Amino acid sequence: MTAVPYIFTVIAISAGAFFFLAGTVGLLRFPDTLTRLHALTKADNLGLGLIVFGLLPLVEWPFGAFKLISVWLLLQLSGSIVAQLIANFVRREEAHE
Amino acid sequence: MSSFLIGAACFVLAATALGLLRILRGPGDADRMMAAQLLGTGGVATLLLLAAAVQSPAIVDVALLLALLAAFASVAFVNSASHSQVKASPAMDPP
């Protein structure tokens, strides 16, 4: 009975860690800046989202869970804003050359 | 359960540290900043996993602070780099 949330946690956290590895490999292997940005945002959103999702059954219900979700929402917001800003910067830099 | 969480934290930390090679290789400033952004996200994920592993909710506050600082660092980089970009273009012809 108590094993069910653990199985869920193990699966979600393993998937999140896999996406972090995929983000790192993409950041190292992709050929130009914009494709690397694409790999980075995948790691940001899916990796951290899945890890937070997997940790939710382990924390105390009302406040611990809301805090985890708020960390995830803050990174989601800042990650999307930073991705737009960096892409805009790269495009202007290419236009200058 | 906690040994699995610590193992996952070490794995994410190792993956993030590997991503820091991009800071070494460059080639542009934006690439280096993206590696720093990955360090911010990976650090937050590591801290959250550790907080659940050692049952200490205070570490979640550290993760929240790291998320905030990573966001500020990237915005400050784009802001200052755009200023130098604007300054650099008229400076092409010397006065």
Question: What does this protein look like?
Answer:
The complex is a heterodimer of chains A (97) and B (95). With 97 residues, chain A is mostly helical. Helices cover 88% and strands 0% of the residues of chain A. Chain A has one domain (3-96). In chain A, helix 1 packs antiparallel against helix 2 and helix 2 (33-55) runs antiparallel to helix 3. The mean pLDDT of chain A is 86. Chain B is mostly helical and 95 residues long. The longest helix of chain B is centred in the last third of the chain and has 31 residues, at 58-88. In chain B, 37% of the residues are buried. Chain A binds chain B through residues 6, 9-10, 13-14, 16-17, 20-21, 23-24, 27-28, 33, 36-37, 40, 43-44, 47-48, 51-52, 55, 58-60, 64, 67-68, 70-71, 74-75, 78-79, 81-82, 85-86, 88-90, 92-93, 96, and chain B through 1, 4-5, 8, 11-12, 15-16, 18-19, 21-22, 28, 30-31, 33-35, 37-38, 41-42, 44-45, 48-49, 52, 57, 60, 63-64, 67-68, 70-71, 74-75, 78, 81-82, 85, 88-89.
What keywords describe this structure?
heterodimer, A: mainly alpha, about 90% helix, B: about 100 residues, mainly alpha, about 85% helix
